[in-house]
Backbone:
């Protein structure tokens, strides 16, 4: 019994090392590894993704994060009010409206 268990463990270890050496045959071997580095200190522009308004609460999704009125965003801005088509935010003394759909600046003629 012990001999059978030992053989099974050795077979599994051998199979695991054989599978670990497999690589994608469509990938060239001479390509360097690509490193991705996240920039630090650079904040992404705020983008309004969604607005939820119910009888009891108002919530918005900004840059993938669900927020409500009064919450502070990652860039230090504060959510002032959530309207049906836009969200009003304030950063220090500047106020800004984030719209769901960008407004059209030029009329089509």
Residues:
């Amino acid at each position: 019994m012990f001999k059978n268990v030992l053989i099974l463990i050795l077979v599994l270890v051998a199979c695991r090392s054989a599978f670990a050496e497999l690589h994608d045959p469509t990938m060239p071997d001479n390509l360097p590894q690509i490193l991705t580095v996240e920039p630090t200190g650079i904040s992404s522009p705020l983008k309004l993704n969604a607005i939820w308004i119910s009888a009891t609460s108002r919530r918005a999704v900004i840059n993938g994060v669900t927020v409500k009125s009064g919450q502070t965003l990652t860039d230090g801005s504060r959510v002032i009010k959530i309207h049906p088509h836009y969200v009003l935010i304030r950063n220090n003394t500047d106020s800004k409206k984030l719209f769901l759909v960008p407004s059209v600046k030029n009329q089509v003629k």
